[in-house]
Amino acid sequence: MKISARNTLKGKVKSITDGAVNTEVVVELPGGAEIVSIITKTSAHNLGLAVGKEVYAVVKASNVMIAVD
Predict the structure, then answer these.
(1) Distance between CA atoms of residues 1 and 16, nearest Å
(2) Is the model's pTM score more than 0.70?
(3) At 45, phi and psi to the nearest 5?
């Protein structure tokens, strides 16, 4: 796989929740952290997503906010 995004996080699908149009995909990263993505139902189907499948969460953003307590 070649991609221009520098932030690729490999993990496993923890859960998939279908909505009317979109699908929420929770990816568990090594160490237990999770990242959530909302994609179209069609994309989820075309990717063959299933719980336990290894995937990459690809982050391409011009802004990433940092917060502290």
Answers:
(1) 23
(2) yes
(3) -65, -45
3-state class (DSSP) for residue 44: helix
Q: Which pLDDT tens digit goes with each residue over 37-66?
A: 999 999 999 999 999 999 999 998 878 888
How many C-beta neighbours within 10 Å does residue 31 have?
A: 6
CA R_g for the chain: 13
User: What's the mean per-residue pLDDT of the chain?
Assistant: 93
27 three-class SS: strand
3-state secondary structure at position 58: strand
User: 56 Cβ partners below 8 Å, 6+ apart?
Assistant: 1, 8, 9, 10, 11
